[in-house]
Write a structure and sequence with these properties.
Blueprint (H helix, E strand, L loop, with lengths): L2 E3 L9 H13 L14 E4 L6 E6 L42 E9 L9 E2 L3 E2 L7 E6 L7 E10 L8 E6 L10 E6 L16 H7 L4 E4 L16 H11 L3 H7 L3 E4 L16 E2 L2 E2 H11 L8 E4 L4 E5 L22 H13 L4 E6 L21 H12 L4 E5 L5 E5 L6 E5 L19 E5 L4 E7 L8 E7 L5 E8 L3
Parallel strand pairs: 2-12, 10-11, 11-12, 16-17, 17-18, 18-20
Antiparallel strand pairs: 1-7, 2-3, 3-7, 4-5, 4-6, 4-8, 8-9, 10-22, 13-14, 15-16, 19-20, 19-21, 22-23, 23-24
Amino acid sequence: MMIARNPGIHFTLSLVVAWFAIQSVEAGTVHGQDDVFQGNGFKVGAVTQDTAIIWTRLTARPDIDWDATKWPEIKKPMNPALPEGKQISDMLGAIPGAGGRVKLVYQAESSKEDAKSIVTAWQNVDPQSDHTYQFGLKDLKPGTKYQVQVHSRALSGKIGPVMKGSFWTAPAGDASADVEFAVVTGQDFPRRDQGRMGHKIYPQMEKLGLHFFVHTGDIEYYDKPGPFATNVPMARFKWNRLFGLANQRSFHQNTSSYFIKDDHDTLKNDCWPGQKYGDISWEDGLKIFKEQFPIGDQPYRSVRWGKHLQIWLVEGRDFRSKNSLPDGPEKTIWGKTQKEWFFKTVNESDATFRILISPTPIVGPDRNGKGDNHSNKAFTTEGNQLREFIGKQKNMFVCCGDRHWQYFSVDEKTGVREFSCGPTSNKHAGGWSNDKRSDMHQYLNVTGGFLSVSIESESDEAAPKAKFKHYSVDGKLLNEEVFEAAK
């Protein structure tokens, strides 16, 4: 197994080289900050059968500063957000970064006593990238649970805390494995529902023993108050604060995760390339997201999770046309290259169930007057193209985010089946009402919660099943749809 850094991953260190590098670095002493912590824990992302990326960040505090200065109530985002004489590090929720080094120790879970740990060299976190570092793992075993330790040390040489966790790799493409994952959308710090712990859904999802997790975007809102994030330091502050919450930290340290960005966590509501939000440029928005999440180099991805499941994670911001342009064959959300990739890889797949996970709806229905997704009139041409293609596929479904209510809808023309997961808290739910159920809706509930999907195969002779379950924020089952694989 070998280790690298992302972005610009280059796999360079064997176990032996890593061991000698560790001894060399440990022998020296560097003067600097005395204490260092990992107040944001770590995230495990971009997981395949044999690769993964581990993200971490060094901090000057072990957790959120709950006793610091409260943010003033400001209704207009272009007003100065900081009180006079204050810095971001003085404010409620701050987890300032810190210089130092990190190293990774990991091994496959095994009943064998001789199971070996892989140890990386100490690596400097990057102060220009919010004191973060991303380890690229290679040559992992498919369908395997790995135990992880992220070690830290200050520039002074003082050893910091060790963060522990675990994650699953994807099963081999020919393995008849049962898989369960969850999908969420829409969360932010002000609308959390468990105080200093964070959001209730994370402990509930942990109870399910998920193999992986997908956040479909709007993970945080730059363009919502408390404070507005109109520059890069403020954007980083909002990420650090959100992932300093205990529930989020615990979950991501023990769950393979895929992260997709949408409008609010790229720049602002319904944004497209070339726009700005305050002092944050479009390029800044893309760079910050890659800095804060282990996603790899390609924004759209497909991953095989065993014989019976393949997922597609698509990018809805990088390649889109302006929402305001007239609809037509050239107007796009996905872009030509991504769309061709999607059609090609879906046609080539022999997975029993194929699931598109989209940051925005493909089917809907959505509110009148909206013009940002494929269920809106503004993108009718491309929406029809995608729905017609998906509708012709056997055992294919769509899971989407962006909408602040849960639903299961079936497109009346093409038969495409779409599940909206709903937002992460009840405070975040809205924009629709339960009395607006249409013929398309098989299930509708304006509530917070999450969606789980399980792929189950009882035997080689029995047809595999896909189960889609909507849960409340408290983990109560609200709706279940079961589909037996069509031959």
